[in-house]
Specification:
The protein is α/β, with parallel strands linked by helices. The protein has helices at about 10-20, 35-45, 55-60, 70-85, 100-110, 125-135, 165-170, 170-190, 295-310, 315-330; strands spanning about 1-5, 25-30, 50, 65-70, 90, 115-120, 145-150, 190-200, 210-220, 225-230, 240-245, 250-255, 265-270, 285-290. It folds into 2 domains: about 1-120, Rossmann fold (3-Layer(aba) Sandwich), CATH 3.40.50; about 125-260 and about 260-295, 2-Layer Sandwich (Dihydrodipicolinate Reductase, domain 2), CATH 3.30.360. It contains 10 helices and 14 strands. α4 runs parallel beside α5 (about 100-110). It is globular. Bound molecules: nicotinamide-adenine-dinucleotide (NAD).
Length: about 325
């Protein structure tokens, strides 16, 4: 598949383009960035033509697909522009500034029959896949409770788009919380039907939230919460996903990240009788470790390319990503 890139600095250069180039089925044909410095640097680094105007990029290159990794406020217009040139689009998360924008984008791709996928790569983490497989094999019984924590240290930076509501759509929820909501739906295999949150700005002085707690309920009644913070030091970040069922637990540590790794502890401990004394003798969980060779970015692009090659667009994942934006609207009270 021939790819071009809109927004060639940041995550595109750090993760996605290198991942794309490890797959011989992919070819990078051109890049575009609004910043002439970033466009030139990325174009020269990967030996492809570079542009500072997206129309010129789309009009002069023969890419099948466009990877878009620009600030969130650009997503809708750039994805629609790529669609108008007949391109399939792999768009970075979160989909758009609001649920409504996201839904109308998805509707447009459906109507045109072009593939749209969103960059929620954490479902391809080896330990998240393991968690799903364990749950499917009754490894913790019926899941009753889920918790996710995803944080980073993100201090005030003059002009940063993520720190402005109009450009990023929000703060820690839009940037980190969305990953957790999407991952929870993926692992549980069912939609979150209700989400509410507390959020605020406490450590930094930007206008978007630097911390949030989301509480949620899934279709079958699993209850959960998500903590997402911009104000916890990276070294204190546990980056955890915890799933508790009526027969045990799965706890992933250090897995909400850009690289595979971390660990998964699995304890299967069905219990019959009520134990009034609540002795806390614990069994040793089975421990699994992540696979550093597993590149989540490569996997998500490969899945996208396979879908395009099949000739049958599949909107399951885009639909979920849009639903996440609608939940975020609910949380923010948009
Ligand atoms: N899935 C992930 O792991 C992951 C990680 C980081 C960021 N992201 C997402 O990727 C997107 C970009 O984030 P980032 O961290 O790379 O941001 P960034 O600010 O580091 O990089 C964005 C790039 O886009 C360019 N740009 C800005 N406006 C543009 C425009 N109108 N047209 C073309 N280029 C433009 C900038 O010059 C910059 O090079 C966001 O949607 C973000 O949420 C995803």
């Amino acid at each position: 598949m021939k790819w071009c890139v809109i927004g060639a600095g940041g995550i595109a250069d750090r993760r996605t383009i290198p991942a794309l180039l490890t797959d011989k089925n992919n070819e990078l044909v051109a890049v575009m960035d609004k910043s002439p410095v970033a466009a030139k640097a990325t174009g020269e680094k990967y030996g492809v033509p570079y542009f500072t105007d997206e129309k010129e990029l789309l009009a002069t290159t023969d890419a099948d697909a466009v990877y878009i990794s620009t600030p969130v406020f650009c997503h809708k217009s750039q994805a629609m522009l790529a669609l108008s040139y007949g391109k399939h689009v792999f768009l970075e998360k979160p989909v758009c500034l609001t649920g409504q924008e996201s839904r109308s984008l998805l509707d447009a791709f459906r109507a045109a029959g072009k593939q749209l996928s969103i960059g929620y790569m954490m479902k391809y983490h080896s330990l998240h896949e393991k968690a799903k497989a364990l749950i499917a094999k009754d490894g913790i019984g019926n899941v009753n409770s889920v918790r996710a924590q995803f944080t980073c240290w993100y201090p005030d930076i003059a002009g940063a788009w993520r720190q402005q509501k109009a450009l990023g759509g929000g703060g820690a929820i839009m940037d980190l919380g969305v990953h957790c909501l999407e991952l929870i739906e993926d692992i549980l295999g069912e939609p979150i039907v209700e989400a509410k949150g507390f959020f605020g700005t406490r450590t930094f002085s930007y206008e978007v939230e630097d911390g949030a707690v989301i509480i949620l309920r899934t279709q079958s009644g699993v209850l959960g919460h998500v903590d997402c913070n911009f104000n916890i030091p990276d070294k204190a970040s546990e980056s955890k996903l915890e799933l508790y069922g009526d027969k045990g637990y799965i706890i992933c540590r250090g897995t909400l990240a850009q690289e595979d790794g971390g660990s998964l502890s699995h304890l299967y401990c069905p219990q019959g009788d009520y134990e009034a004394a609540q002795h806390r003798t614990t069994d040793e969980p089975v421990l699994y470790t992540g696979d550093p060779e597993n590149n989540m970015y490569r996997r998500q692009l490969a899945a996208f390319a396979m879908q395009v090659a099949s000739g049958k667009p599949d909107y399951t994942l885009a639909e979920r990503a849009v639903r996440v934006q609608e939940l975020v609207d609910e949380i923010y009270g948009n």
